[in-house]
Design a protein that fits this description.
Length: 535
């Protein structure tokens, strides 16, 4: 047995864990894996283990696990289903003492096609035999979605599922297998053509077919056939779960598990500074992202990383005000950059006035070198304190390409902050756009500098989408009042101004509701009963 190891600073290490799906492995003082788990958000899940309240509320088994954790590793997966597959393989491999699931011999489902048969069928299996000449697809984490996918394939491609041998008389007559011709009239060779198309579909070549189903769903919704639209929506969800490309994990990947945990922020920052030609490592970075899923709520986010780690207390969210009823990423990016750094300059100006240096204390609204050779960036960095919102970053990152970058640069120019390094990171090919450069820069896919940029960009995206979902949830809640008899638009606004949200109105007494101007005792009782019935 190995000698006991010194306990890792778990909370410090937690700062390197990304907000992404994946698996985590807890280790004891001898380095042995004692628990394997999966998570949709690794950072959130792991942080739950190291809060004092969790230890106090935990049952004896969980408390024993938490007390035994001396270190942890993690591995990022492409999606939650991928994480589930990897979790199962690792539990079977390590057999951790605190895991129960997946320790038996049960395996995830595969789809098997015996191409040697005269009439090949798509069947479910849990074991793969590499020497039987069959084609296999999977494994699949969602068994329910997989079974629905096979049902779809029977109807869309006219292929046989389950059973063995040639089609029975009942199968030949079944309307399920009559696409594109009756199964009874098809030859084995023609049927194999159906099988080939179905195999391509299982391999993920389904984009065109899924797009057609999505159009059909939208048409059904437009015709108010919501039952059919919901049926197509559920079918699309199942098909996407099944046909989405996923990494297939094997036990030979065991040595790769420590790679994601080996993040070295200092090295990554130094590499990023060198790649971008900066004076040094960008200790403070700020990244902007726009979320405009609909024109109702266009929002933006700003996240801040200091020394390569998230500084959550400096995150900011914005509701875009300059555009209404339309989507304009460029105008939205210009607005949020203008608001962020205008406020930063005001805060630094106030700090300069407190320092009693009137000749330099007010950061100029426009670049004006007639009185001083010191620009806004130099003044700001001289007065700002590290870790405050007024501090200017060493690098600005905008999520997008040339258009978003140009909009942000224009605002920085007006504010006299054009000296701050800024880049645009386009998501599709991870291209880095720089001011004045027509050709984007591409970093190596496995470079620490690119991974650092991806982490801050993904965090900004998560923060913006979270805010958008919050506003949509509030709007759905507020719309309840529209269906309450007697509540006009004016009264609705008065109620929301008074209580802030429908949830708070629901918790208020009838007397409190009646105290809102324009709402009497009778209407207050009606509102209280209505919200109680629709809770």
């Amino acid at each position: 047995m190995q000698a006991p190891r010194e306990k890792t600073d778990l909370k410090t290490k937690l700062g390197d864990v990304p907000h992404k799906p994946g698996v985590y492995l807890h280790r004891d003082r001898f380095g042995r894996v004692i628990y394997v788990g999966k998570a949709r958000d690794l950072r959130k899940r792991l942080s739950n283990y190291f809060t004092p309240s969790r230890l106090m509320r935990a049952d004896p088994k969980v408390r024993a696990l938490i007390e035994a954790i001396h270190d942890f590793d993690w591995h990022i997966a492409g999606s939650e289903p991928e994480a589930l597959l990897l979790e199962g393989k690792l539990i079977k491999e390590y057999r951790p003492r605190y895991n129960v699931s997946f320790r038996d011999d049960k395996r995830f489902l595969l789809v098997k096609v015996d191409v040697g048969e005269e009439w090949p069928r798509f069947r479910l299996t849990r074991l793969k035999n590499p020497d039987d000449g069959c084609r296999y697809f999977g494994p699949f984490a969602h068994s329910g979605a997989l079974r629905q996918t096979l049902t779809f394939m029977r109807k869309r491609f006219g292929v046989l599922t389950f059973g063995r041998g040639s089609p029975t008389e009942r199968e030949r007559r079944s309307s399920t297998y009559q696409v594109p011709m009756k199964l009874a009239e098809a030859t084995p060779e023609q049927y194999r053509g159906r099988v080939a198309k179905a195999c391509e579909f299982m391999e993920g070549q389904s984009k065109e077919l899924l797009s057609g189903l999505e159009d059909e769903m939208k048409n059904a919704a437009a015709k108010l056939d919501f039952e059919r639209a919901a049926e197509l929506r559920n079918m699309l969800d199942d098909l996407r779960k099944t046909t989405k490309p996923m990494t297939r994990y094997t036990t030979t990947m065991r040595h790769r598990l420590k790679l994601p945990g080996a993040i070295d922020p200092a090295t990554d920052l130094a590499e990023l500074g060198e790649e971008l030609g900066l004076p040094g490592p960008p200790r403070r970075m700020e990244c902007f992202d726009i979320s405009n899923i609909s024109t109702t709520h266009v929002v933006a986010s700003m996240v801040c990383f200091i020394d390569g780690r998230p500084a959550n207390h400096l995150y900011r969210r914005y509701r875009i005000k300059s555009i209404e009823g339309r989507q304009d990423d460029f105008a939205s990016m210009a607005e949020v950059v203008r608001r962020r750094y205008s406020r930063a300059l005001r805060e630094i100006s106030e700090l300069g006035m407190q320092n009693a240096e009137p000749e330099n204390s007010v950061v100029r609204e426009h670049v004006d070198y007639s009185f001083s050779q010191e620009g806004n960036v130099e003044i700001a960095r001289r007065f700002a304190k590290p870790g405050e919102t007024g501090t200017l970053p060493d690098l600005i990152i905008v999520d997008g390409g040339k258009g978003q970058l140009s909009s942000a640069c224009g605002e920085l120019q007006v504010l006299g902050l054009s000296e701050i390094p800024i880049i645009g990171l386009a998501k599709e090919f991870e291209e880095i756009y720089r001011p004045g450069k027509s050709v984007p820069r591409l970093l190596k896919r496995d470079s620490g500098a690119l991974k650092l940029l991806q982490r801050i960009r993904d965090e900004a995206h998560r923060w913006a989408n979270g805010y958008h979902q919050l506003l949509m949830k509030r709007r759905i809640g507020e719309s309840l009042l529209d269906d309450c008899a007697g509540v006009s638009a004016t009264r609705k606004q008065a109620l929301l101004r008074k209580f802030g949200s429908v949830a708070r109105i629901r918790r208020a007494t009838v007397e409190q509701i009646a105290g809102v101007p324009g709402v009497g005792a009778k209407l207050a009782e009606t509102i209280a009963i209505f919200l109680k019935d629709h809770g």
